[in-house]
Amino acid sequence: MDNLDTVIAAFANRLRLAHHVAVLTGAGISAESGIPTFRDAQTGLWSHFDPEELASPAGFARNPTLVWRWYAERRVKACAAQPNPAHYALAKLDKHVPRLTLITQNIDGLHQRAGSRNVIELHGSLHRARCMADGSLHTTWDYAEELPHCPDCGALLRPDVVWFGEMLPQTALEKAWAATLDCDIFMSIGTSGVVEPAASLPRIALSRNATVLILNLEQQTAARPPLFTINGKAGEILPRIVK
Ligand code: BV8
């Protein structure tokens, strides 16, 4: 376990020389905004159900009302939440480096509300619904309806998120891969690195000798360049890295 200040200073020095920074975020970056992560035992979303139950096509087909109720509840929580210092630090970093590609697994929209632009949403968004008939996207729908329907054709709407067993949006995935292959610094923030294909991105960056930071609550704090790992809260650590 290395000294936290030393590891932060060493990584920040490399960040100052970066040409292209790629950032992958997961549920952990929104934890300090009060949004539960997936794997937190006491509050994790998955502590109440199996992902196949709700976040899957089969789960939706089995019980669309239950699934819509779950996403509607999460959308209300995301709207009520505020971006935290971690989101703002990444929005600020975007102005400090020549190029930054922000890739998120999150569907809460907090990066955009913190001012980040061109956010690559690998797993979709709570703030969009998709028509099951023609695939049209909708950013508003009748929130009072337990089973919302397309205002244009009347077909059932589904949340515009990627469920388990579903392909990720091709364009988003290609942009994420391209940034991972091109970047000289890759920052993985607040993700357990369980869900593929997002989980492979830091490994791909490391295999190409990019400097990689992994920041979550499981890592040991250590500087083993080009790999830096920090055990800490994103809302506390990122503002110290992005001065
Ligand atoms: C795919 C949207 C190709 C929905 C999500 C069998 C059949 C089919 C596929 C598979 C299969 N077996 C495996 C797979 C692949 C599967 C997968 O990876 N499964 C896992 C469970 C093993 N992947 C897929 O299905 C993907 N599609 O592969 O398509 C395909 C197609 C057909 C057949 C074969 C292949 C689609 C995956 C996308 C699923 N949708 N979200 C919704 O949100 O409801 S995933 C969802 O879970 C999130 O988006 C996120 O990606 C993931 C949760 O991960 P994290 O974000 O990391 O959150 P987690 O709670 O795990 O960790 C939190 C972290 O934060 C921790 O590390 C913690 O320490 C840290 N933390 C906490 N607080 C803080 C903090 N860090 C810093 N500061 C803090 N304060």
Please tag this protein with its features.
single chain; 243 residues; Rossmann fold; SIR2/SIRT2 'Small Domain'; 2 domains; seven-stranded mixed sheet; 35% helix; protein-malonyllysine demalonylase activity
Note down, in words, how this protein is organized.
There is one protein chain. The chain has 243 residues and is of the alpha/beta class. It has two domains: 1-35 and 83-123 and 169-243, TPP-binding domain (Rossmann fold); 37-80 and 129-161, SIR2/SIRT2 'Small Domain' (2-Layer Sandwich). Helix content is 35%, strand content 19%. It contains nine helices and ten strands. Helix 5 runs parallel beside helix 9 (234-241) and helix 7 packs parallel to helix 8 (200-207). The radius of gyration is 18 Å and the shape is elongated.
The CATH superfamily of the largest domain appears as TPP-binding domain
Measure the end-to-end span.
Answer: 24 Å
Poorly predicted sequence stretches spanning 5 or more consecutive residues:
none
* CATH-derived architecture of the largest domain: 3-Layer(aba) Sandwich
Spatial order of strands in the largest sheet: 3-2-1-7-8-10-9
Helix content: 25-40%
Return the domain count: 2
Coarse shape:
elongated
Radius of gyration: 18 Å
Structural class: alpha/beta
Give a count of the beta strands, DSSP E runs of length 2 or more: 10
Please work out how many helical segments DSSP would assign.
9
Q: What is the CATH T-level topology of the largest domain?
A: Rossmann fold
| CATH secondary-structure class of the largest domain | Alpha Beta
What proportion strand? 15-25%
